[in-house]
Predict the 3D structure of the following.
Amino acid sequence: MYYQKNEELIDSWNKTLAVVAKLASVPVALVMKIEKNNISVFSKNNGTSDNPYTIGNSECLNGSGLYCEQVIKSQKILNIPNALSDKNWNNNPDLKLNMVSYLGLPIIDETGSPFGTICILDNKEHVFSETTIELLEAIKQSFEVQLKQLHQQHIAEEKQKLEELSILISGLSHEINTPLGIGITATSIIESNIDNIQQKLQSKSLNQNTLTLCLSTIKESVNLLSNSLSHTAEQVEKLQDLLICNDVNNHQLIELSSLVKSTLKKHKDILNIGNVKYKIKHHEHNDTLAFVAPHLLKQVLLILCKNSLEHGLADIPTPSISIEFENHLDLIKLHFRDNGKGIAHSEHIKIFNPFYTTNRVMGSSGMGLSLAKRIITQQLHGEISILDSPSGVHFVITLPKCAYLSSNK
């Protein structure tokens, strides 16, 4: 199941069990998990040489005679101060590891089925206090809550993946089917006009006007077909850009404020549509150095600006875009804001999905923000997110100040 590979959960439980073992004054604290017909060590207290158990070690569950088998079958607490003096337990397998005393509780998973046990063991007689029992019960309940939360998170993630896939398929279908439909229609018109010319030639009734009209129609149809094919190729190329990440080696330490100014100046013809005012907020005494590939960050800036121009700032009386820098020790944040219509909070989780758009009827493909995120996260090794804003939209781009060290270096 999904939590079997959740290293973060195991690490958290290991640390908790280490505290439990210390407070209970025992060498061993474990979480044992049912694995089909076996029971295995899922988590353990680390940092002590007195714990003979290793994560992943397993034993056959049924008929094993283990302490934990009894806990799982009874779904009740098992408290054994000294197995050597208990005729029911003086031959149990854990005695081979010198585990003389045992206190264990059952853990159930998010479905209410047995998950395994949480237990503490000692290599000598140990009468466990009420405080220790209450502590173990509290930890058990905490672990069960975590399992339920992890399950809910897993369901939410799977649901989101399905929604993203649905958006991707729907968007791709629209972007491909529309030009394909146009192409099929144009081809049909071309074929019809060619047939008309051939029939006129065979009947020797083709005149100059008919030929001119047919050729004009064919030419228009060819242009329409060519434009449709070009649009399809462009969308496929954009999708390839999203799926294929090519590392770039021209990262350099640059001043972001200078890059932003030069980008807005260079592309002012397309960015000044609608009399938008651009404000760059930068305190001169603060550097805005970041380690980036300039052409990629310029591409992201253009995407964000165009996104605002096309979606947020239309019909806004005094449209404006502001870019502000926030300096930190190892990173720098670029705040991109506009005073437009904004994006509903419910849409925040979707806007970076490929082909997601609320403006498809106006020709938007929904590829811009997804491409921006891919560039920022995969090639510039940063992050991009959208924040709630009282007006307009507010994106935050986080970039490293020093060279990114990849795992293959």
Summary: The chain has a mean pLDDT of 83. The chain has three domains: 2-128, 167-243, 252-400. Residues 179 and 229 are 7 Å apart (CA to CA). Helices lie at 7-24, 67-74, 130-202, 208-243, 256-266, 268-271, 294-312, 368-379.
